[in-house]
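Take a specimen:
=====
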Amino acid sequence: LTLYNHTGSCGSCNTVMNVQHLHLLQAGLFLNMMYLQTIYIYNAPTLEHVLPSVFSVSLPHLKILRIINTRLKSVPNFSQLNTAAALVMVDLENNQIQKLTTGSVQIQAESLILNYNAITEIEKGAFNLSQIAKVSLKGNRHLSKLHENAFDGLKSLRSLDLSETSISFLPTKGLQELDELRIEDTKTLKVFPSVYNFEYIQKVHLTYAYHCCAFKFPAKHNMLEHYRHQLFVQKQERDCEILEEEMEEGGEFGKPLVRKERSWDNEPWLTGNDSVKVWGDLQTMPPYLHPTSPALGPFGTFHQKGVTVGVGRRIHKMCGNLSKNYQEVMCSPAPDAFNPCEDIMGNWSLRVAVWLVSVLALFGNLAVILVLLSSRFRFSVPKFLICNLALADFCMGAYLLLIAIMDARSIGDYFNYAIDWQNGNGCHMAGFLTVFACELSIFTLSVITIERWYTITYAIHLNRRLKLSAAVKIMAGGWTYSTVMATLPLLGVSSYTKTSICLPLENLKVLDLGYLVTLVLFNSLAFSVICACYSRMYCSIRGGHEAAGSLTRSDLTVAKRMALLVFTDFACWAPIAFFGITALAGYPLIDVSKTKILLVFFYPLNSCANPYLYALLTQQYRRDMFMMLSRHGLCSRTAAKYKIGAHITSPKGNKPNEMTLMTPGPSNDDSLQKGII
């Protein structure tokens, strides 16, 4: 190995670049280089080890040591490296270092860069006896094991970067004096430690917005640590009161209290003018000697000044700063409209309403499914469609129940559960259920409405009715469409993880926008079809009676029932469609907290109302229900009355067991009205 000496703005530098066959650094390589300031080894793909004796040398003027883009498998032994002051930078970026073992890093430096290595584990006391201001471990994607004492024994640490790693646990021993913490793009870290472990923290850059809620609401984030902190503060307040009383009385109370700002002046390895001069020297060095990692930002200076005040002012300053205001910490990404620090439901009115709607939807639709499937009467097209509708609405009730249960579990501190919930199987299941249920429900309602409209409008065409086989094929298409739309967010088209209520509201890509626009347009079109068909049905019935001059009370009943059906559809879908379209157009009119009222209450309201409007309140359903109960020895007399009535009112040519749920008969207007009522 030949070291080239360069003179110029950087002083004395030894640079080795693009050495393809360098595999060993010999002992004594740096002997007698008393004025060496920089060691830079770059792009040596065969260099795997550095002998311990290589850096067992005195290099009093050394400031920068960089070994980059090699196959180095372990951190060189710097424990015997003797320098007059702390190194400005030790850069071991983009090597093949696999593990930081106990005591493997022993160095005094202002910056240690271990970015983009192959580190998988940091053992106990890996940095013991070191003094390092900034440590960066960014880009070690396989780093998953951090011992709880990994940073114990590391002094003077002010900045730590664990971004782009796979850690699931953040130890706090040794991190009490951090100013800045970066853990970006690290989705495996779902639990953030108590903020009370970071006494001097000023800036935090994290992966999840919910982790920043810990700084806004430290008491809710970790109640036990908050309680301990309060006890500590109370004890300090009592001690301060005693000290102030003794000062006022002029009594002796031991040695003067000294509280200094965090300063590097008293560090033995930073004394002298060299450490200050180093920072200025960096400005004139060649670009290739500067760090390549932008995450650390520009070089800064250490705290240089302590607090020099009188004894009384020292005590006043100490007692006036017993508790840090963590809400002032700069934390990103900050909680936003989609990821607020509030609970899922936000308020008790919405919470109670969701429980009510979910229970009514579950029991109402379950009752419809059980009765229709157990009926001994012919399984007609309307019954088949109503079963599909009830099943879809039952899924919506299940979605609401999942959301309500999660809200109940996390009341007061949802942000502690948010990451696991929104990225877990529970939220994915809830999101799938709600999209599947919504799309299948509105598809089925459209088919039911069109089938009713055709039956009433063309009542004389007995041979042109929708057959059960055709209905099965149509609903198979509806099931396919609903399943595809519910599955797409699981495959990366939009996402169920965007909000706490697990709806696919993510709109980052063109594909996401297309998906959301498709949902809104399909639902809007279906709603328009339903309204148009009901209007035509009412006009058809009313026109027939006006021609005969016989408007009756039943006409008003039909009108009221139709108005109720259309109103419930309008109340559910119109607000969502309106605000959804404005949001997709880039002009949201309400925030997400208020949107929850629409999405969690109005959005599933149809699922609660449908079983009552389309089945439970109809005479045919009551007949089927009592018939089912009579087979189990219940309500036999009532069932007998319905059975007799069925024989009497059965249209000519139809057998009693051919009567269908909400199916109008072909021969008279009364039958048409019963099909609606």
User: Anything to note?
Assistant: The first strand starts at residue 4 and ends at 6.
